[in-house]
């Protein structure tokens, strides 16, 4: 009888030794989807702008208010035209007590007066940190 028990034991333990990796693949895909969904995306102004070049640059937070000025003088935020008069309302609404930087992305062909008007409106809305976005000059 002891021989029968050992024979059964050998049959049970002599499997092929394969590991099922399908649960591992499921977990990897779930993690991949989680990281893709929770990634912070940078908002764009929604218009095509050729930035001017500058010798010095400073990196800013990903959480910032982006305002774009086209070569024709159109002022945009979030893909829609707001005009110079809408800058104060948009910036004031988005600040809500936060100290978010306002980044002005002006086309290099934009009139300086238009950029200064947008900068003034952002400061009148309560923005303390207002920057003009440029490309690296090198």
Describe the structure.
The chain has about 140 residues and is of the alpha/beta class. The protein has a domain at about 55-135: 2-Layer Sandwich (Nucleotidyltransferase, domain 5), CATH 3.30.420. The chain is about 40% helix and about 15% strand. It has helices spanning about 1-15, 20-40, 85-95, 110-125; strands at about 55, 65-70, 75, 80, 100-105, 130, 135. The strands form 2 sheets. Strands 4-3-2-5-6 form a 5-stranded mixed β-sheet, with helices on one face. The chain has a two-stranded parallel sheet with strand order 1-7. Helix 4 links the parallel strand 5 (about 100-105) and strand 6 (about 130). Helix 3 (about 85-95) runs parallel beside helix 4 (about 110-125). The longest helix has 17 residues, at about 20-40. The radius of gyration is 29 Å and the shape is elongated.
């Amino acid at each position: 009888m002891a021989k029968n028990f050992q024979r059964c034991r050998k049959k049970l333990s002599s499997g092929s030794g394969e590991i099922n990796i399908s649960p591992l693949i499921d977990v990897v895909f779930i993690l991949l989807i989680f990281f893709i969904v929770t990634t912070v995306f940078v908002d764009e102004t929604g218009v095509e702008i050729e930035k001017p070049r500058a010798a010095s640059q400073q990196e800013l937070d990903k959480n910032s208010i982006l305002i774009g000025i086209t070569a024709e003088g159109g002022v945009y935020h979030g893909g829609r035209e707001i005009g110079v008069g809408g800058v104060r309302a948009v910036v004031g609404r988005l600040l809500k007590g936060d100290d978010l930087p306002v980044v002005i992305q002006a086309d290099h062909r934009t009139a300086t007066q238009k950029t200064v008007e947008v900068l003034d409106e952002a400061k009148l809305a309560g923005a303390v940190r207002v920057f003009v976005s440029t490309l690296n000059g090198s």
